[in-house]
From TrEMBL:
Higher taxonomy: Bacteria, Pseudomonadati, Pseudomonadota, Gammaproteobacteria, Oceanospirillales
Record has Endoplasmic reticulum as a keyword: no
Primary localization: membrane
Annotated signal sequence range: none
Protein family (similarity comment): Belongs to the MipA/OmpV family.
Native organism: Terasakiispira papahanaumokuakeensis
Keywords noted in UniProt: Cell outer membrane, Membrane, Signal
Protein name listed in UniProt: Structural protein MipA
Top-rank taxon, per record: Bacteria
Record flagged with keyword Metal-binding: no
Pfam families registered for this protein in UniProt: MipA (PF06629)
GO cellular component, one term: cell outer membrane
Subcellular location: Cell outer membrane
InterPro entries recorded: MipA (IPR010583), OMP/PagP_B-barrel (IPR011250)
Amino acid sequence: MFLAGLGMTAWGYATGAYADTAWTGSIGAGGVWKPDYLGSDDYEFRGFPNLTLQAKGVGYLSLKDGIGTYLTESDHWQTSIFLTYLFGRDNTGDLSDFEEVDGGIAGGLRLGYNQGAWQHNLSIKAPIGGDLEGYRVDVSTRWKTALSQRWSFFIQPGIGYADKQWNQAYFDVSAEDSAASGVRAYRVSDGSWDAHFTTGVNFQITKEWRLSMAGRVSRLTGDAEDSPIVDELGDATQGSLMIGTAYSF
């Protein structure tokens, strides 16, 4: 109930209470080459839309970060509550005989600190619906610099922690899944850490249009890494490549 109330507060503040506030943002599209499930060693290409809106002192709306409202905001610090959508697992390929994991809405708290070229972020979120339960914490640091008048470059390392219930949704192999697929049954018994590193470049085509390209490598650990859908069918180390374009307004 707390998270549902949190989400309604975020929606009301970000869209209703400040309807006359000036919003800025960007809209675009792109594509990503990534594993077909978390822990897979099979890759697929998927297109995606891109939409970001934000208003200083009010909140933000993003297909990546969800909808949120600022609790506090200064030149360097931002604290917000948010709602976002968590994707489940559409089982294809190696997991075609598994029961699907339904995604759902999650609510959470986000803390950000900006200082010059550095941007630090911490978020904690918990599911409200779907097959997911538990919570997840993510911490990342981003450094960005201009290479020329049109080109910029960034790096972003990060770590995450998912508790036992969160991991069970993604990495358990139930008795039914085992019987249908021949993969040994498995039950996650603890939470686990993961780490990732992202780097990329942005090219400013015009004042409004930009082209972005990025690569990411990530690593699962603990009970997530030991799951047979990772250890036997997939790979704990995964990569992805993204390209996209956006129009800013």
